[in-house]
Design goal:
Elements: H1 3-11, E1 16-18, E2 25-27
Antiparallel strand pairs: 1-2
């Protein structure tokens, strides 16, 4: 592994999802505490609300 690869591997900790309507980004490592979603919560474990908080 090259030194640049190690740095990149350390910065990628989780998946991120972006709403194509409003541009809202959900990062699994951050969660969405203000909406009751704890950090580390997988996107697959979030109830299907149909819209991002901003697009709603």
């Amino acid at each position: 592994m090259r030194s640049g690869d190690a740095a990149a591997a350390e910065t990628v900790r989780g998946r991120a999802w972006m709403c194509l309507v409003c541009g809202f980004v959900y990062r699994e490592e951050d969660g969405l505490p203000e909406e009751g979603i704890a950090p580390g919560t997988s996107w697959d474990d979030i109830p299907d609300a149909g819209r991002a908080p901003i697009a709603a």
